[in-house]
Design goal:
The chain is α+β, with helices and mostly antiparallel strands. The chain has 15 helices and eleven strands.
């Protein structure tokens, strides 16, 4: 490259850097849509749609946010389509062009196409399984659970961290198998969930019940000795008994911000802290606010924390980020020095501009909930109304697209014997 071309190229770097410095980052672009999700999910979807449809290095992250917004709005079929598009894109962009990597070294990580974190790629299928469960399409939900298992197996084979494991997917799969009366498959899935999250208390009863139904007497005796507090219930053999399963997605996952001590690097800040307490009340027949006759009542149990997994993932990637930015500083120094040899002032300007543009990459799937919890309520086959409370407040969000009673925060469901009816609930406050 002759001197004129070199000066032109580096001048282009400077211009790009100045433009990048002035551009709004990802968090700014999606902030209004996130705020609208609680009050006007349709408008939130409308604002996210053009961002999701625009091809470019940020398309994947906007597709994920758009699909989640559609789910919160109760548009499950549309959400399914967008999640499938996002998954396909995530599998295609494992390759970075040399020019974009070079740009990221000279400017910032934002210049590279967003690939998604490993845990985000796993959660695509978890979230899509929720869509299918909300539509009562259990077989399709099971396909998504199998895709999670495939991804987890590949991550393990690649030596990735154990925190990518998903007890949520194993547990959803176990309940679907059980509802389909494939009890041996259900038992195996409950066992996998236990291996990942042995502290999840409902699994003690699940393992014994599924073992009995799968006719695994040796395993049943082992679990009975390990969990002597579990009482075998007569309704486990009652063919008229069904179950209402509530999957509760609470709040917002953590948000990326520049580290105060080092703005070139991101860190995650919790938006919703801890697991919520929530309970589910089930009423027979017609519901009214004065109704006191309750069929059943159950508390929910937390099974997956997006906060914990996301923070561990980012901290695990910190060494790579530091190495990348150190290489970036060296690249900036070389480019600035090359220009400084031709024009000292221009070289100084290039050094300043490129460093101003080197900011933390704040892209992430930011519309995820903070946590997932599950409540299970065994009931006789029949028609019921379900009300959920979280921290003493009736949860009314996430109702669009659902069969509702005239009373806010109450859903009407039909339960069949030996089957499960799934309700997906999202609270955005």
């Amino acid at each position: 490259m002759n001197s004129l071309k070199r000066v032109s190229a580096i001048t282009l770097w400077i211009a790009t850097a100045l433009v990048a410095t002035g551009c709004a980052n990802y968090q700014v672009k999606v902030d209004e849509s996130r705020r609208l999700l609680a009050s006007n999910p349709e408008l939130a979807c409308e604002k996210l749609k053009p961002l999701a449809l625009e091809e470019g290095r940020d398309q994947l992250v906007y597709l994920l946010d758009y699909a989640t917004a559609l789910q919160a709005a109760g548009r499950y079929e549309d959400s399914i389509k967008v999640f499938l598009q996002a998954e396909k894109l995530s599998e295609l962009i494992d390759y970075h062009s040399i020019s974009k990597v070079a740009t990221s070294l000279a400017l910032s990580e934002e210049m590279v196409q967003y690939k998604g974190e490993d845990f985000e790629k796993v959660l695509i299928n978890n979230m899509n399984a929720m869509n299918f469960l909300a539509l009562g399409q259990l077989e399709e939900a099971l396909v998504e659970v199998r895709r999670v298992n495939e991804k987890l197996y590949k991550l393990q084979a690649d030596g990735k961290k154990d925190f990518n494991q998903s007890p949520l997917a194993f547990y959803l799969g176990a309940m679907i198998w059980e509802s389909d009366r494939k009890y041996d498959d259900a038992y195996i899935a409950y066992k996998k969930a236990y291996d990942v999250l042995p502290s999840y208390r409902p699994l003690r009863e699940d393992l014994i019940r599924a073992g009995i139904r799968a006719q695994r007497p040796e395993e049943v005796e082992k679990w009975k000795k390990q969990f002597p507090e579990v009482v075998i219930k007569p309704e486990w053999r009652d063919r008229t008994m069904g179950e209402i399963v509530v999957v509760y997605m609470h709040g917002w996952g953590p948000r990326k911000q520049p580290r105060p001590e080092s703005p070139r690097f991101p860190h995650l800040v919790s938006v919703t802290r801890g697991f919520p307490s929530f309970s589910v009340s089930v009423y027979p027949g017609e519901y009214s606010p004065e109704q006191t006759k309750m069929t059943s009542y159950a508390s929910g149990f937390p099974i997956y924390s997006v906060d914990d997994v996301a923070i561990k993932a980012l901290e695990g990637d910190y060494a790579r980020l530091v190495g990348s930015r150190l290489a970036g500083i060296a690249t900036k120094a070389v480019l600035a020095e090359q220009l400084r040899q031709k024009d000292n002032a221009l070289g100084q300007l290039a050094w300043i501009a490129m460093n101003l543009a080197d900011r933390a990459d704040l892209r992430q799937w930011s519309t995820l909930p903070s946590s997932f919890s599950i409540a299970r309520i065994p009931v006789k086959a029949g028609q019921y109304n379900v009300r959920m409370e979280s921290n003493g407040v009736i949860v009314r969000e996430g109702m669009d697209g659902e069969q509702r009673t005239p009373f806010a925060g109450v859903r009407s469901v039909t339960v069949k014997g030996l089957q499960k009816t799934f309700l997906i609930w999202r609270r955005l406050h």
